[in-house]
Known about the structure:
Layout: E1 11-15, E2 22-26, H1 41-44, H2 46-76, H3 84-115, H4 135-153, H5 159-171, H6 174-181, H7 189-193, E3 204-206, E4 223-228, H8 240-245, E5 247-251, E6 271-275, E7 287-289, E8 294-296, E9 303-305, E10 311-314, E11 326-328, E12 334-336
Antiparallel strand pairs: 1-2, 3-4, 4-5, 5-6, 7-8, 8-9, 9-10, 11-12
Helix pairs in contact: 2-3, 2-5, 2-6
Amino acid sequence: MADHGTSSGKDIVIPAEVPGTAVVVTDAIENPGFPPFRPRVSDVDPKKERANERRVAWFFWASILGSILAIAAYFVFPIDADDPGSVRTNNALLGLGMALALFGIGFGAVHWSRTIMEGHDLVEDRNAGHPPAEKYEKRAGAAAVFTAGNQESGFTRRKLIRNSLIGALVVFPLPAVVLFRDLAPADDPVELLSHTLWKKGTRLARDPDGSPIKASEVTLGSAFHVIPEGLQDLEHGKLEEKAKAAVLLMRLKPEDLTVSEGKEDWNYQGIVAYSKICTHVGCPVALYEQQTHHLLCPCHQSQFDIKEEAKVIFGPAKRPLPQLPITVDDEGYLIAQSDFHEPVGPSFWERSL
């Protein structure tokens, strides 16, 4: 049989379609081997080698500087709710700092591998898939690989590169730590969400124009997005109170309502008001199905049955929407009897910090 290799230069015999015949093809492709090794400038000039080493360290120091700048920018240029431009400034400086931190490590690693690490060619034999007979041989082989990698990279020998790289890797995650830590509320969210702008005698007003609503204007099957009257007159920086006080107002037939003990007077002639904030993760529950009297949260499809005091009938929400007790004043306008009797918003905020 002829040799079927492609690197020996021998003839290859290929069987032809006609039995008893064959075609002889001369294998003209031989293994050229490695090209001649061309030393780099840093391989022959110690001064160039030290200069490249300093450049690599500069990249890693630049990464450290970028991480520090990102943290500083986050605190020096905070986001101001009254100034939309502060969002752009904060994001731009924060992004530039984090980009410098990331690219500093990347460019330093590339420059290190191209100019300082050993650049000779090598061949790695393919693993046949069968582990060595002795586990100690396998361990020794792995140790030899790590030893060779350390020698070729000079990690332990080049203290300037090693120390700057370790510093960059330690400082690099700090901006993310600062950002995620700042997501935690400064105050106890349970206390913040236990009280809203609703109080006894506050009129229910349309969102967003703030006009008060009469009970006679709420027809069967209708739904109103409601805010406390006077909310639009608050200072701009306090408009986050709107999120807590947002309410949905609907009218059903009184006989269709299931009313718990103690809540008999919380509705007015079938008109009920419930918090608009989903008890799952706080999305606005704004989709009302007139025929079924179901409220749907568009974020994760939690559904609440208004006939059953906004009981959860589907989805990940775990508790009903808080109900706002309402009645009417002497002029026929709908008013609140009090604030909500439980915290609004997601259930997990009820866990004390």
